[in-house]
Design a protein that fits this description.
The chain is an all-alpha fold and about 90 residues long. It is about 50% helix and about 0% strand. It starts with about 30 loop residues before the first helix and ends with a helix.
Length: about 90
C-alpha cells in the first residue's frame, strides 16, 4: 500500500507565461486623483476636530470642579450611610 502517486520529475512539463522584458510604464496620477485625495484628507481632518475648545472657559472649569466636589461629597455620605447601616459580626 506504500505506493507513490505522483508523476516523476522528468515527465513534468510546465508552460509558464512568457517573461516580460520591457518594464511597464509608470502610472501617472491625474489632477482629479490629487484633488480627491486632498479633499478626502481634509474631510477626515475636519470631522475629527475637537468640539469642546470654546467650552473650556474659566467659568465652565470652575462649575465642573464644583460639581465634582459635590459628587464626591455625596458619594462619601452614601458610603458612610451604607457602612453604618450594616450589622457588625
Amino acid at each position: 500500500m506504500n505506493t507513490t502517486l505522483s508523476t516523476p520529475v522528468d515527465e513534468q512539463h510546465h508552460t509558464h507565461p512568457p517573461s516580460l522584458d520591457r518594464v511597464s510604464s509608470a502610472r501617472t496620477v491625474s489632477l482629479a486623483d490629487r484633488v480627491a485625495l486632498h479633499l478626502g484628507v481634509a474631510l477626515i481632518t475636519w470631522s475629527r476636530r475637537p468640539r469642546t475648545t470654546a467650552a473650556n472657559s474659566d467659568d465652565a472649569l470652575r462649575a465642573r470642579r464644583q460639581a465634582a466636589i459635590a459628587r464626591a461629597k455625596r458619594e462619601r455620605e452614601w458610603q458612610l450611610a451604607l457602612y453604618l447601616s450594616q450589622f457588625r459580626r
